[in-house]
């Protein structure tokens, strides 16, 4: 089975996610689907759902949420360049992910680390303060 005869091909959602390299194993893909991290056409689904070209998938991967459209169907895991031909990410999704990444970076830069570690006297003062506060 190849991506050329996609009209005839029937592939489960968990197997397609594995073949498109969103997850390392089919069991991880199955857990993500069952956990509600994958939505098929804006609805929760089951791992056995048969995928169709043109369907919209919403994937939550760590900090990121991607919205992709299925362009091709394959049940075989191949190289990353070939796997990327199976789908395309929407422009809104790309922009939203870039904006959120920029926000996380600026928030992290705003939290400056302390200039130095506390010395022995500072640690005693901290301990004394905590004891007074009942912490």
Automatic annotation (TrEMBL):
- Which SUPFAM superfamilies does UniProt cross-reference here? Alpha-L RNA-binding motif (SSF55174)
Q: Cite a single GO MF annotation.
A: ribosomal large subunit binding
Comp. bias regions, Basic and acidic residues: 122-135
What are its GO biological-process terms?
cellular response to heat
Q: Which UniProt keywords apply?
A: DNA-binding, RNA-binding, Stress response
From the UniProt entry, list the residue stretches annotated as the region Disordered: 104-135
RNA-binding S4 domain: residues covered: 11-74
Classification via NCBIfam families: PRK10348.1 (NF007673)
Its family? Belongs to the HSP15 family.
Q: What is this protein called?
A: Heat shock protein 15
* Organism listed in the record: Marinobacter santoriniensis NKSG1
Q: Identify the taxonomic lineage of the organism of origin.
A: Bacteria, Pseudomonadati, Pseudomonadota, Gammaproteobacteria, Pseudomonadales
């Amino acid at each position: 089975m190849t991506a050329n005869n996609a009209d005839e091909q029937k592939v489960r959602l968990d197997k397609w996610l594995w073949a498109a390299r969103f997850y390392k194993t089919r069991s991880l893909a199955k857990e993500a689907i069952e956990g509600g991290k994958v939505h098929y056409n804006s609805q929760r689904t089951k791992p056995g759902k048969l995928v169709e070209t043109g369907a919209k998938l919403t994937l939550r991967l760590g900090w990121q949420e991607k919205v992709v459209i299925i362009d091709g169907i394959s049940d075989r895991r191949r190289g990353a360049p070939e796997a990327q031909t199976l789908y395309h990410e929407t422009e809104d999704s790309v922009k939203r992910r870039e904006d959120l990444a920029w926000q996380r970076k600026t928030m992290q830069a705003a939290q400056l680390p302390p200039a130095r570690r506390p010395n022995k006297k500072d640690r005693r003062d901290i301990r004394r303060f905590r004891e007074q506060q009942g912490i």
